[in-house]
Design a protein that fits this description.
With 378 residues, the chain is α/β, with parallel strands linked by helices. The protein has helices at residues 10-30, 40-63, 94-99, 105-115, 133-145, 170-179, 204-216, 227-242, 257-260, 265-268, 287-293, 304-310, 338-356, 358-364, and strands at 33-36, 123-129, 149-155, 189-191, 247-253, 272-274, 298-301, 332-335. It has 14 helices and eight strands. Helix 1 (10-30) packs antiparallel against helix 13 and helix 2 (40-63) crosses helix 5. The protein is elongated and about 90 Å long.
């Protein structure tokens, strides 16, 4: 008669079960395989478009004999502008600018669009500045990959290390992308940006340079008297462009004041996608808040380091190269083999039931000659 379940051997039995559990867990960990995430193909298409835009800028910068500052632009993208220029309007964070220079941000934007419920043919309103050309590229790439209908308004001036070269502003980049066949999206209108969205804070020469960029790219200028008028003019222009179509999402890239309403609002608005902004003590309601009040989901692309962390994208100095499409958890994540998990669970649960549950053991073991004795594990 077997006595292997005697009380004296109970620690050994429990220890054996624990070791077996660890071994099974180890097997599961070692057999994890990459699994494509939701909308993998769309994300790849968007990231590849963004990558093509990066290559177009690289080619153009070399052709123009422009200097690529590798100290601030270690990936050699050509998308990091001067720290100071006549069209810089505010301090910038170099790490945030570098973090944006990754074509896989386009997949992040696709993910946000899909969670907002967007599909091909839907209209989106996009407010960009010259401060984050990498994010602007990502948004355009996502829009084209998903075949959305955008209305883009650009505030041309830029913060430090943005599209701050007066001869290579974001509008010039847009023209380059169209010329190179990368994007069809371009701005429907532009403003000077900076304080009150009217170029305040820029020198007269800086304002003149921004106006020159708007003129040479044949983009209509939205003129205004003050910030309230700037917001009103924008909203009217948006409605005119939508022409009765419903806006399905509003995207804000950077800290354009007419889009946000007030500088403080960028801290009041949650980063990423929000289906509603709710009621807050807004210093002033910009286009973003006003669109949210109409029930439009909004996407706020600021606080770049936190956004990168949210989506598992690298941050300097973790990388000093131009990432290629498809890198990161936004595309694939290691996952357990669920068929193996199910088998291991059934085997281990059955073993525990037989060994540890007296009722089960009594039902199963007598036919094989096993009987319960005093001292058996209960």
């Amino acid at each position: 008669m077997l006595t292997w379940l005697s009380a004296s051997r109970r620690p050994l039995i429990l220890g054996g079960l624990a070791v077996l559990a660890l071994l099974l867990q180890g097997v599961l960990e070692r057999t994890r395989t990459p699994v494509k995430q939701r909308d993998y193909e769309l994300k790849m298409a968007a990231a590849e478009k963004a990558y093509a835009a990066y290559l177009a800028v690289r080619r153009d910068r070399q052709m123009d004999n422009a200097t690529v500052e590798l100290e601030s632009d270690p990936a050699g993208t050509g998308l990091i502008g001067p720290e100071e220029s006549k069209i810089t309007n505010s301090p910038g964070d170099l790490v945030a600018k570098q973090t944006c220079l990754n074509p896989n941000w386009a997949a992040v934007i696709v993910d946000m669009f899909r969670h907002a419920g967007l599909k091909a043919g839907d209209s989106v309103v996009i407010a960009v500045t010259g401060s984050f050309p990498g994010l602007n590229i990502a948004v355009y790439a996502a829009v084209e990959a998903m075949e959305l209908l955008p209305v883009v308004i650009t505030s041309v001036s830029a913060s430090h290390w943005g599209a701050s070269d007066p001869l290579f502003t974001w509008l010039d980049m847009e023209k380059l992308f169209i010329k190179e066949g990368v994007f069809d999206v371009r701005s429907a209108a532009a403003t000077l940006g900076a304080s009150d969205d009217m170029g305040r804070g820029l020198t007269p020469t800086g304002c003149q340079m921004v106006r020159a960029a708007i003129d040479r790219n044949d983009i209509p200028l939205l003129a205004s008297r003050d910030i309230e008028d700037a917001i009103t003019v924008r909203m009217a222009f948006i409605e005119e462009c939508l022409d009765g179509r419903r806006c399905r999402a509003y995207v804000n890239v950077g800290g354009g004041v007419a889009s946000l309403g007030a500088t403080r609002n960028k801290h009041l608005i949650k980063r990423g996608l929000s289906t509603t902004l709710g009621v807050k003590n807004w210093p002033r309601k910009g286009c973003m808040v006003r669109m949210s009040d109409k029930g439009v989901p909004v996407i706020h692309l600021l606080n770049i380091s936190d956004l990168a962390h949210d989506y598992g994208l690298p941050q300097p100095p973790d990388y000093d190269y131009l990432a290629t499409p498809g890198e990161g958890d936004i595309f694939k994540r290691d996952s357990y083999r669920y068929s193996l998990v199910a088998v291991f669970f059934l085997v281990y649960a059955g073993l525990c039931a037989v060994v540890l549950a007296p009722e089960v053991r009594r039902k199963l073991l007598p036919p094989f000659g096993f009987v319960r004795r005093v001292g058996d594990v209960k």
